[in-house]
Amino acid sequence: MSTFLGMPAARDGRGPSPEAAPGTLSGVGRPEDPLHWGASFPDAAKAALDNGQLRRNLGNATSTIRTKRARVVGEVPDWEPLRDAGSAVKTDVMARLPELLETLERNVTARGGVVHWARDAAEANRIVASLVREKETDEVVKVKSMATQEIGLNEALAEEGIAAVETDLAELIVQLADDMPSHILVPAIHRNRTEIRDIFLERMADAPPDLTDVPRELAMAARAHLRRKFLSAKVAISGANFAVADTGTLAVVESEGNGRMCLTLPETLITVMGIEKLIPTFDDLEVFLQLLPRSSTGERMNPYTSMWTGVTPGDGPQEFHLVLLDNGRTRVLADEAGRSALHCIRCSACLNVCPVYERVGGHAYGSVYPGPIGAILTPQLTGEKSDLPYASTLCGACYQVCPVKIDIPSILVELRAREVSLAGSSPDTADRVWKAAMKAASFAMADGARFRRAARAPRLLRAISRNGVIRRLPFPGSLWTRSRDLPEPPKQTFHDWWAGREDGR
Amino acid sequence: MTDARTEILSRIREALGPDGGSVSPADAVPREYRSAGEHVPGSDVVLDLLIDRLEDYKAHVHRTPAADLPGVLARVIAQRSAERQEVGSSDYRSPDIPPTTRDAVRGSVVVPSGIEEGWLSGLDGVDVHVDSRDAPLSAAELDEIDAVVTAARVAVAETGTIVLDGEPDQGRRAISLVPDVHVCVVRADQVVQTVPEAVHLLGAHPDRPLTWISGPSATSDIELDRVEGVHGPRTLHVVLLS
Questions:
Q1: Is the pLDDT of residue B104 over 60?
Q2: Cα Rg, chain A, nearest whole Å
Q3: How many domains does chain B have?
Q4: Which of B132, B195, B206 is closest, CB to CB, to A286?
Q5: Which of A91, A111, A173, A341 is the least crowded, having the fewest Cβ atoms under 10 Å away?
Q6: B203 in contact with chain A, both atoms CB, cutoff 8 A
Q7: Residue A104 in domain
Q8: How confident is the model at residue A295 (pLDDT cuts 50, 70, 90)?
């Protein structure tokens, strides 16, 4: 059966609107399900495309970071061998996941850490909330973490009366604006400096009243705002970029120093980590610490990387909890074709090169994981029917830049095929139309005069075209136009043009 | 009801199927990448590369013979103190100058207990605080101190990175984090060319708390415009002993 590569009909819209109206400070709100919110992708994308400010912000940001990445990747002579190694290490990790997780648990425990296991978001949130409650505090500081975004930890803690303060600058902006992240690495990429200034002035009590929109001033305002919280926080919550099974070492890669603050100063550290974040040995870090920063921020190395192994007496948090999160990952693992989505190291290079992401932005995907990786990971994690696999032109740029060589385009096609067979989209109808069309084509093409007449026929469609496109055709043309526009047919066929040219000589 | 651990592990085993995911064993990982650079640690090429990379991150680099180290440290601290005296305000627009309630004249530094004493011999009149795991300063106390001086474990030239591993000459992670100026002293023979060389060296003691530092703290969260100096030290001095 052939695979339908176009955009399916929109699913029912639900939840908050996909993009805030331009010019308003408030974001899209916090959805109930961080992996499935907002309108359908086609509707959300349409709305996003009408937002000129958003498109300018995204266009500037993604083109800047693409250039930076290309430059620093270009200076590494062994980039391809590093990608090969990164990919192979992750494949190996998946194959040995139970054994490696048990090794990690043993090593973290031996060094004074406590390991917890969480089957789903609710269980992880319960574990974290009860750990925080034990410490009798109502405020925790947080390092940017996709895993905690995915499980909606902040909202769960808020229900327990615990305020989770995001300390990454972009996450702070998103949190203050009651918004959702729109990029894995730069969650506030959809906001420009003036919008950020306005958000700070309106929502950050201690923002200087004469704050300008110079990025340095904005960063300093955030520094002043968070400083006291860092120095007094009792509990910090983080994610993890890597966990070394062999040694029990965890690593967090960051830029601002908010990560170091959270990982170093509080008495208690709680780390929530997806079970796929493992690497087998400490030496494997040599691969990923080269692949990740260059792919992600386009830097040779990010400003700060922290590594810790359990508890170090007298240095840093004296209580460490590691929450190992499934939340759909075993479902992804069970899928041989899509399993490699778990290799993702969350660098976001695929977002920055994606022509679809660049135009519609992260919110249109309705998931904390947007862009090409989100289009394969989100539906696999949730196991729900999704139109995200269609949010791609299959141009393949994502595969080319992926530091661990996840073949995103092939997985997208596979997921599309499954959507189609799941939907049982009356292959009989498609089949009948196809056969009829072939029969008609065969009749027309069998005779030169007939073919010329047939080729001229579409000119009639010019009568219903508007601005050079035809948006809607009756059946069977609707099979095409329900997903995409049809360009206006030319006034003249090639055949007629050629004939006219000869006469003119 | 089974516990979460048992259930997750059995879900994984089920997902992988009877042949455990049927993937090649660990030794099949191709490692064709460079495990070391072509230049020996501490060679001039490697040092020049490190300096170039550090300056690209807006770190201040001082290349000096070991004998001149005390003088260099004294100058850096004095300059710092002078800057603060001059502006002396808590204005958020003076990012290099932290708000302070102290009237230290010659400034203050914190050093780890295992630092070489000779390094500090030029710091006349500077308030020197010694920190250790047994006698740690509080975060609030560290926040009042101008600068920190530490040694390093290893530096990576290609990426402009220095790594601290928390040993007594580098100290607790908090001391190189809270003060606004970090002065890090690196010996030439500690500078390797590539990341794998550094990881290999650090792998001898993977349990030590590691901090990889590449320039001062920075953010690109606003329109991907890089701003140096956010929560971590806003100024990084690297003193390279050769």
A1: no
A2: 26
A3: 1
A4: B195
A5: A111
A6: yes
A7: yes
A8: very high
